[in-house]
TrEMBL record:
Stored InterPro entries: ArsR-like_HTH, HVO_A0261-like_N, WH-like_DNA-bd_sf, WH_DNA-bd_sf
Phylogenetic classification of the source organism: Archaea, Methanobacteriati, Methanobacteriota, Stenosarchaea group, Halobacteria
Descriptive protein name: HVO-A0261-like N-terminal domain-containing protein
Annotated ranges, domain HVO-A0261-like N-terminal: 41-124
Pfam family, one: HVO_A0261_N
Length: 306
């Protein structure tokens, strides 16, 4: 199978090199759209038929016989024969004359992967159109399609604390959590993550962005809370990053991600939950990279009073 040319590859390469995704270039058509008329016609040909996409999907999983494709797609023999002929003419599939099996070509595999990603993106955009404007799409490589099976667990402007409660409940039942935080509201509740009755959990870590760091250092009540929690830990729990975060990220037990975002309307807070492996990996790598670029909150200097 050919190597896919996708944004995800670019961002995974950037992540492996510890490069911010913002340093990678977005994909654009090189030249006027008219230069791609034949390609556009082929894309239109493919997406006009669910059977065509389904056949490429099946073949991307391995070679198939004609009878297997017939059963899986539910297409008539005439329809299937026409589709296979069209796909073969475009060099998207191959037919083995030895055993009669059909397989996908490298070109077909690359095209199917790109189309599948487009379908996922459109699906999420339609399904979550009321909150997509709040999502930090593109930040550190987060793609809209990654949220294909995510769940909006809170979307309640009437109850600003609903989002914090939803996340706090998940944290209370967890074994570990790592957080990218842009607020310090309800710090002690968030850091039910940072303390059990027997003290701080060693795997819990919080990175505050620039704005949240300022509050942590300048608000006496907040300072008292986090320093008390930190004093019981053998290694630093709280860290400071010198740039703002576009949302809050909670990685719970390395298998569940909560994204907390804010809308333009005052009090409009949304929490999205995902256990998708791509989102979990994105959260893990993003936290790891930002944590490596941060300093311990205890090492930050409090601004002198004027």
């Amino acid at each position: 199978m050919g190597e896919p040319k996708s944004d995800e590859r670019v961002y995974s390469i950037a992540a492996s090199m510890n490069l911010p995704a913002e340093e990678t270039d977005p994909v654009h058509l090189d030249g006027p759209i008219s230069a791609y008329s034949t390609a556009i016609e082929d894309v239109a040909f493919l997406i006009r038929s669910q059977h065509r996409i389904h056949i490429l999907q099946l073949l991307s999983e391995g070679p198939q016989t004609r009878d297997a494709l017939l059963t899986a797609t539910g297409a008539s023999r005439v329809t299937l024969s026409r589709i296979l002929s069209d796909l073969e003419d475009r060099n998207w599939i191959d037919r083995s004359y030895e055993n009669g099996e059909l397989s996908i070509t490298d070109v077909g595999a690359a095209i199917y992967e790109e189309v599948a990603e487009l379908i996922e993106t459109v699906h999420v955009g339609n399904e979550k159109s009321h909150v997509t404007g709040q999502l930090p799409i593109g930040w550190r490589g987060l793609q809209l399609r990654h949220l294909v099976d995510s769940e909006v667990v809170v979307d309640d402007a009437a109850d600003p604390m609903a989002a914090s409660r939803a996340v706090a409940d998940a944290i209370a039942e967890s074994g570990s959590v790592r957080v990218l935080a842009s607020t310090v509201t309800q710090l002690s509740m968030k850091n039910g993550l940072a303390s059990r009755r027997n003290g701080v959990r060693p795997d819990d870590q919080v990175v505050f962005d620039a704005d949240a760091t300022e509050v942590c250092l300048e608000n006496d009540s907040v300072t008292e809370q986090w320093t008390a929690l930190e004093s019981t830990a053998e290694t630093p729990t709280f860290f400071s990053y010198d740039q703002p975060f576009p949302c809050e990220v909670y990685l719970v037990d390395d298998r569940t991600v909560f994204l907390m975002t804010w809308g333009k309307t005052e009090g409009a807070t949304t929490v999205i939950k995902s256990e998708n492996s791509r989102v979990v990996e994105w959260a893990r790598v993003t936290f790891q990279n930002l944590r490596s670029e941060s300093i311990a909150l205890l090492d930050c200097e409090r601004a002198p009073s004027t």
